[in-house]
Design brief:
Blueprint: H1 15-24, H2 38-48, E1 55-59, E2 64-67, H3 68-77, H4 85-96
Antiparallel strand pairs: 1-2
């Protein structure tokens, strides 16, 4: 898939520098990350047969389009294998479905359960 990747790129000296950059930028919650190299991101996109600019979802409440490239970058950082990408894409599509009620999942109850909202249309 020869399409151009459009995300900002950073230069680091080695894998440790890449991981440190992820922590400095706040791209991790403290868990280890896999640096999203261009080759790894392209392998994810190829596995799902998606162009980098393909829109996977639109999060209405945040007015944000989620592209295949961004999903691939995050999948790499999470340690996914390329063969997992179609499942990751399906999950993101589900989260973008207005019936999911994405807004309801951005806050949690003390036990970590999603809070209930009258406008959330989640099917558990």
């Amino acid at each position: 898939m020869p399409a151009t990747l459009s995300s900002k790129r950073y230069t680091v000296n080695d894998a440790a520098g890449a991981i440190d950059l992820c922590f400095e930028k706040g791209w991790t919650d403290g868990l280890p990350v896999v640096p999203p190299t261009e080759a790894a991101v392209r392998a994810m996109l190829d596995a799902a047969r998606l162009a980098p600019d393909a829109q996977i979802a639109y999060i209405r409440d945040r007015a944000t389009a989620v592209t295949a490239e961004k999903v691939a970058i995050n999948a790499v950082m999470a340690g996914c294998k390329p063969e997992y990408m179609p499942v990751v894409v399906a999950a993101v599509e589900g989260i973008g479905d207005p019936r999911w009620g994405y807004r309801a999942t951005i806050s949690s109850a003390p036990a970590g359960a999603p809070t209930s909202r009258s406008d959330a249309r989640c099917a558990w």
